[in-house]
Each structure stands twice: as structure tokens, then as C-alpha cells.
Amino acid sequence: MVSRVSIFRPSFIYPFTTSLFDKNLRLSNQSQKRLLLLGCSSGSQYGNKFSVSDLRAWEWCEKQFEYDRQFAKYKRPTKSMKRGTARHKKLEEEVSKKVVVRKLSAEDAWAAKFMNFLICANQLSLEGLTRELPLVSLVNGKWFVGVVDELRMPIVGMVQNPSLVDTKTRNQATLPSEPQKRNSRLQLMCYKYLWDTTISTNFPIDEFFNSLGLDPQYNLPKEIQHRATNLGFHAKTLGDLVMFFQSTCSTLPPSEDELLLRYEYQVDNSLLGEETFAYDSDSFQSLMKNFLEFVGGQRDASYVSKNENWKCRICSYASVCPSNTKTHNIRHQ
Fold this sequence. Notes:
Layout: E1 2-7, H1 29-38, E2 49-51, H2 52-60, H3 62-71, H4 79-93, E3 96-101, H5 106-127, E4 129-139, E5 142-152, E6 163-170, H6 178-200, H7 205-212, H8 222-231, H9 238-249, E7 258-265, E8 271-278, H10 281-295, H11 325-331
Parallel strand pairs: 1-3, 2-5, 6-7
Antiparallel strand pairs: 4-5, 5-6, 7-8
Helix pairs in contact: 2-3, 2-6, 5-8, 5-9
């Protein structure tokens, strides 16, 4: 079992992300008023850092995603979300244990991410299995981060390409609806895209430090320096670590086009079903282009289609969203 690094509280690194399927937010009157008056905001609010969960939330509903970026800090995890997190933690602990780094700088959080990637990549090569592998990649000037649930790779034979697996936990003993399945497929395709992009291109070290305002000379915590030594390299600064990350990525193989989604019942972790599907490059590239246009401010947020307007019944913002006729009329009085 390998040891990996955990930052005590690195959440400031990530953009706000939320549950897609839980109506657990109650906005104050002041917040509702602000939403009604502001309507659609400029795309410049989105910045240049995104998570794979952001892409997934955007595909679910652009307007909800827009509201989430402004008000997600008011949300609290539901019981279902907590159970899902606990299950993924248990799956991770089956193959590794965490070493906690209690510093809170942005450099510490990124150092943990790069170190955990290196630990996972090494474990994948030696054991043919790793879980919770972090990804970071530059896509058309935007930084994307994500964490792959599981990678499997044969350690013998001629073909040694990793297969990506994502496990979804369900609070009901039923398979998800087609829009939910589609959303999960997008997430897994994005993981593959980020993996393949990271290992097939020369990681832009200078742009990484400059665009994110990080210090390459930042001294790494002793725990991370120790992990680097265990992997067979010396890293004193964050710059040293990122350089080794860059060189390691160039040695890794592209992932398999066949992707696997698993659905588990939260109550007893029983398997509800599996779906194997092929990566659709054209479809994914089209969706990514659409996403980048939206967050780049090239167009306003759209609403869900009529055949998927059932999503509004479980949306936290239903009472203030302009797609609601009554709300739309209030906003324009």
C-alpha cells in the first residue's frame, strides 16, 4: 500500500462546485433580490481555472452553473453527498493511505496535487491499479483540474494503456436517468482528455507559474520532500516538483478509448450496473468548445430544454430563475 499526500484544507484552490441533483440550498431574500436584478453576468467572472465538475455542472444546466459560481458558498453537503464522499474515500484507502500536510498556502495545495499524481502514476506502473489520481492540464488558455476515480493497466503483455473507471453512488437502488448518464459520460471523457493531453504535450511550466501567480522557488513541506525521495528524485522547491512531473508525463502511455462507468447503491455498496462506452472525440471537442465560449463571455447562459425541464423541480434556484415565467415578469417590472 502506498502513501499519498493530503492537504488539511486546500479547497481555495478549486472553483465552487456543487451537487447536480440535490435541492439543498435556501437563498436569503437579499440573495434572491440580487439574482433577480443581476440576471446573466459577464463571462469574465469565470476566470481561467476550472474543475471537471464545473464542466459537468455546465452541461447539466448553464443557468444553474452561472448561479452556482456566485452562490455555491452558501451550499452545504447533503447526506447523499457525504455518503458518496465516504465511499470514494474507502475505495481509495483500499490501495493507499494519506499523509497530511497541514500548511495552507496555494503552493502547498498544488504540491500535494503534483506529488499525488506522481505517486499514483508509479503505483499504476508497478501494480496495475491506482485510485483518486489528480489531473491538471491547460486547455485553450484555461486550467482544468480533476480527480480520476480509478485507473487500471495490465502490467504484463504488449498493450499497457490505462483504462479509466468512474464509480457513481446512488441513494436509490435504481440506475440513473439518461441525462444523468450522459452527464457522467462527459465527466469520464473529460478525464481521458486531460490525461491524454497532459502526457502528450510538454507541460507549460512557465505559464503554469505565471498565470496562477505561484512561486516556483517555494520550499516544499518536509513531508512532500520525503515522498519525493521515496520515489527516487530530489525536490526541494515547487519548481523542482513540477519539472519532475513534466518529465514523468512524457513517459506515460495514452489511455484506452473504452471507458467504464460503475453505479453502486449507497446503502450496501452493491453494484447496480456498469456501462462501457467508447470515447467520442468529436462530440467531446464540440462540448468543450461550447463550454469555453460560454465561460469566455461570448454568449449568455441558456436554459434546459423542454424535455428536460424536470430538472427545474430539483434546482435550488427555481424560485428566482428567469426561465420561470412568474419570476421573469417580476424581474422586468
